Amino acid sequence: MTYSMVSHLTCPKCKETYDADSIQQLCVCGSPLLVDYKLDEVKKHVTKDMIAEREQSLWRYHELLPVKGVVNKVSFEEGMTPLLSLPALGRMMGIPNLYIKDEGMVPTGSFKARGAAVGVSKAKELGVQNLAMPTNGNAGAAWSLYAAKAGIQAHIVMPEDAPEITRKEVSISGAQLYLVNGLISDAGKIVADLVKEEGFYDASTLKEPYRIEGKKTMGYEIAEQLNWTVPDVILYPTGGGVGLIGIYKALLELQMLGWIPEEKLPRLVAVQSEGCAPIVKAFDEGRTESDFWENSTTHAFGINVPKAIGDFLVLDAIYQTNGCAMAVSEEEIRTFQRKVAMLEGQFVCPEGAATFAAAKKLKDRDWIKEDDEVICLNTGLGIKYPDAFDVEVKTMEPFERIRL
Ligand SMILES: *Cc1c(COP(=O)(O)O)cnc(C)c1O
Ligand SMILES: [Zn+2]
Question: Which ligand is nearest to the CA of 32?
């Protein structure tokens, strides 16, 4: 039996196929490529019970991942993050069955490590020596550190106001770091030049087909952790949307394997900031693609993406699951970051906090029902963003302290 049961790559737009044993970027038509597996083979040889016995990381699903040689696996045992119920916060929001999938627990402190683990492993397998990518911080940090372990040179371009810690993670790993006075879209143009001039592997979001395969494992894990069922609603902080597309892809694969019931998929919700909400705008207008969002801004840095290359896939996943898209304000993000910490003791990242703010709004509008099982994805650690909000301190005079 083989470690991976990958079959080939398919373009979701024009249906052209490509082989998965040589370097592929976008389809000739400009669309991202998606990975197909020999699901009949998987069905024949792999069972849920076998999976249950395996290591507590995303590699427990290795037949459904693209890395063929276990020797190429670059891993810090990422994945299988906790799915925790939030009774106090749920009570406050009127959603008793509220859960957090806590991605702050993965290496590098954000779920970008999932994409990096699978993406870098596959790059190693394909013989890549240099990779380049634009990033809002966390992806660059994760890919740099995994690339260091793989012996691949990373070239990372990020906006100069991206969270400082991510800059340090990139720098300490020995990656080449370029700062740009602009947005991730500007960083993307610099990467495109580097790729063209230097022949580097383009690891930009969805321009290589394997990052999404790492991120989709969140979908497998949610199903497995719910004893191979799915929740009613999953809320996802959406920048490039890779996680949301990935979760949708994962659940379809599980349905085809017969591992989850066929009649139900969770309603997927793309959450964005009011300062950068291209997907929400497209959804509200009933469109299948988004427009570039001018002058985008939000302190939830991971979702500051003015135009996602996979926007049509995000919108499709939302429409197919009867989901929706919802924007929240910077104030609501800060409020919920505090509420989650005060009521549940978890310091979530601003992007994660946005999903809770959105869940509350959707409950108030009765789009989320009281008996719905609802999962909010916290995509990273709050402590990666020390400047996200102000600290309240009580000061004391020195003599008072002495008297204590
Ligand atoms: C990148 C990132 C996101 C958005 O992820 P996409 O899959 O690109 O939409 C959300 N939260 C955090 C913390 C991130 O780093
Ligand atoms: Zn195509």
Answer: 2
Whether the CB of 299 sits within 6 Å of ligand 1:
no
Report the CATH number of the 6-74+110-202 domain. Answer: 3.40.50.1100
Closest CA to 140 of 302, 299, 275, 31: 302
Q: Which residues contact 351 (CB under 8 A, 6 or more apart)?
A: 237, 239, 300, 301, 302, 303, 378, 379, 380
pLDDT of the residue at 187? 95
> In the predicted model, is pLDDT for residue 198 greater than 80?
yes
User: Is any ligand 1 atom within 6 A of the Cβ of residue 212?
Assistant: no
Percent of the chain with pLDDT over 90: 93
Judge contact between 85 and 93, C-beta under 8 A: no
User: Given the CA of residue 137, which atom of ligand 1 is nearest to it?
Assistant: 15
* Architecture, CATH, for domain 83-105+216-384: 3-Layer(aba) Sandwich (3.40)
Cβ of 304 less than 6 Å from ligand 1 = no
Instruction: State the pTM of this model.
Output: 0.96
The rounded distance, in Å, linking the Cα atoms of 1 and 46 is 10
Mean pLDDT for the stretch of residues 389-400: 69
242 lines ligand 1 (CB under 6 A): yes
DSSP 161-194: TS-HHHHHHHHHTT-EEEEESS-HHHHHHHHHHH
Q: Could you say which ligand is closest to the alpha carbon of residue 388?
A: 1
Average pLDDT of the residues in 349-355: 98
Ligand 1 atom 8: residue of nearest CA: 240
Q: Indicate the residue type of 149.
A: K
Selection from 2, 385, 397 nearest residue 163 by Cα: 385
pLDDT at 340 over 90: yes
Query: What ligand 1 atom has the least distance to the C-alpha of 242?
Result: 7
CA angle 107, 112, 114 (to 5 degrees): 70
Ligand 1 site-directed mutation target among 81, 105, 111, most atoms within 8 Å of CB: 111
* Mean pLDDT over each residue of the chain, to the nearest integer: 96
For ligand 1, say whether the CB of 211 is within 6 Å of any of its atoms.
no
In the chain, ranges of CATH 3.40.50.1100 domains: 6-74+110-202, 83-105+216-384
Q: How many angstroms separate the alpha carbon of residue 10 from the centre of ligand 2?
A: 8
